[in-house]
Each structure stands twice: as structure tokens, then as C-alpha cells.
Amino acid sequence: MKFCCVILFLSFSHTFAQDIIYTNDGRKINAKIIEANDEGFKFKSLHNPYGPTYALARSEIKEIVFKNAEVEVFRNAPLPSTLSTAEVKEIILEKINNYAFDAKSASRAYRASFEGDYLKLWIMRSRGDEPYSNPVLFDFSRAYDFQDISYRANEAYINVFVGFIDKKGKVDKEKLVIRVLEKEKAEEIVTILKIYNRLLAEKNIGLD
Questions:
Q1: Is residue 77 part of a domain?
Q2: Which of 20, 47, 136, 168 has the least CB density, counted as fewest CB within 10 Å?
Q3: At what angle do helices 183-204 and 85-99 cross, to 10 degrees?
Q4: Could you tell me the pTM of the whole model?
Q5: How many helices (H) and strands (E) does the chain have?
Q6: 59 within some domain
Q7: What is the pLDDT of residues 29-40, one digit of tens each?
Q8: What gap in Å lies between CA 185 and CA 98, rounded to an integer?
Q9: Number of other residues whose CB lies within 10 A of the CB of residue 109
Q10: Residue 74 — φ and ψ, nearest 5°?
Q11: Under 8 Å CB-to-CB from 144, ≥6 apart: which residues?
């Protein structure tokens, strides 16, 4: 009987892979997330997975490390909208292609497109007819930190630590800095990128 219990426990532990929730008040919760929605997440305690279902609002969560090692940071994150992934992609392209510039030169504009779910960014020369930099594929499912927008005079600077695909096809991390000449547009760009990050994170863990 003891042997059977051990086998059941090991099988049970494997079935309920662990998600880790870090809350804004300093708690660490070992959990099995079972539902995500606009308000927050529902989960079972890993120590009592057949017990009650708990819920946390997104505003209460600092970070989640999912069982597949994906990390979602909730730093100043807005609630997701009802937009589809395709609609969010269209908004991202419109915002970046019209309002985003190289951090080092306000005369060099960013250009954007998508390859699958990767956001492809490159910088154009000042006359706008040829690229200044090689394109880079950014993986916004791995947006590690959206830092506060920096404001200088009439400009704003977006700062995001985000994954990118290196020459070997592996994911690395860098700080992406985008200059925005219209301050109000900077907040719009950050908001839509955060929404995209959340959509990708929920897609990767199989949540609608």
C-alpha cells in the first residue's frame, strides 16, 4: 500500500507541473494556473490541486514564471483588451511605422513588419529610401521588463528589455530603445506592446 501511494504521488506531482506566482505584497505561490481572463488568473494550490480554486487580479501580481519557463512581468501592465492578435499586430505596425525613431537620431525612422509572431524592426537612413541597420527579429513573448518612459524636452524614449533572435537562431536579450517625437504616442506604443506580450504569453501556455 505504501508503495502504491508513492507511485501515485510521483505520478500526481508530474501531472501538475508548477507555475510560480509572485505577488506585489511579496508572496510566492506554487500553483497550477487553470484560467486566465481580463481580470486575472485562477489557480489551484500545488500542495492541494484538488482543493479550492483561488483567484488573483492582474493588479495584485508582480510576475509569473510558467511551467514552460516563460516569464510574464506585470510591471505597470494594463488590462488586456478584446482585440485579436491580428488586430494588435496591425496597431503595432501603424504606431511604429508612423511615430518611432532611432534613439540616436530623430531623422532615422524605425520600420516594422511581422514574421510570424516575431516583430521585425530596422532603421531607415535619414532620406528614408534605404535601410540604415539590418533587421532584427524581436520575440515579445519574452518582454522581460517595460521600464518607465523617459521624457526629454518634447520627446519620449521607450525602454524595453526584450528577447531577440541572434544569428544562430537562439533567443538573446537586449534593451530596445525607441525615440518617439510625440509624447502621447509613446504611451500608446508601450500599451499595445504590453497587450501583445500578454497575448503571446497566454498563447504559449495554452490559455485563451
A1: no
A2: 168
A3: 150
A4: 0.66
A5: 3, 13
A6: yes
A7: 999 999 887 677
A8: 10
A9: 21
A10: -105, 30
A11: 71, 73, 161, 162, 163, 173
